[in-house]
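Lecture 7 notes: from sequence to structure.
We start with the chain below.
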Amino acid sequence: MSEEFILKTEERKKVGKEEAMRLRDDKMLPVIVYGAGVESPVPLSVNYVEFERLFNKVGKHHLITIEVGGKKVKVIIKDYKFHPITRRFQHADLLAIAEGKLFITEVPVNYTGMPIGVKEGGSMLIFTKKLKIRTTPKDLPSSVEIDISHLQQKQYMIVREILGKFKFQVLTNEGNVLIEIRA
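Predicted structure tokens for the same chain:
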């Protein structure tokens, strides 16, 4: 990953429901950081618009640099919560990742190529849209590219067929169907 994404944070002195509501009223989003190199979970706040813009650009699957207690920390967005009606972010969990250490995350699958079976009139069914992987921060892909142009009608591809083709370890069940071409 070549581009660095930076998110400015502010430490929170107070926590709780009322403080979270006050932050959101001030166009800030409450976040919590935990993981490698973080002593205990650290409550922070980030600018709501900056977080939303960054999330829309990179999603959950990119490393983001934040500053916690004067030091830069690499994180991924581990979890987030939306308001059930407004669909606006309510809270986010950021997982700190140690450089060079393995961690587990999910990344989206990007299927490339037009299957022969679809060109011949078949239909394509996608069963797997993301893969669970174990990787280092350096090898974290934004998505997993899988070429499906060779698939004929009545063929499918399973996870086992892509094992060993990447710099990371695929943890998704090797028998799971990725994609199927139907007649």
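Points to note: The first helix runs from residue 17 to 25. Helices lie at 17-25, 48-58, 116-119.
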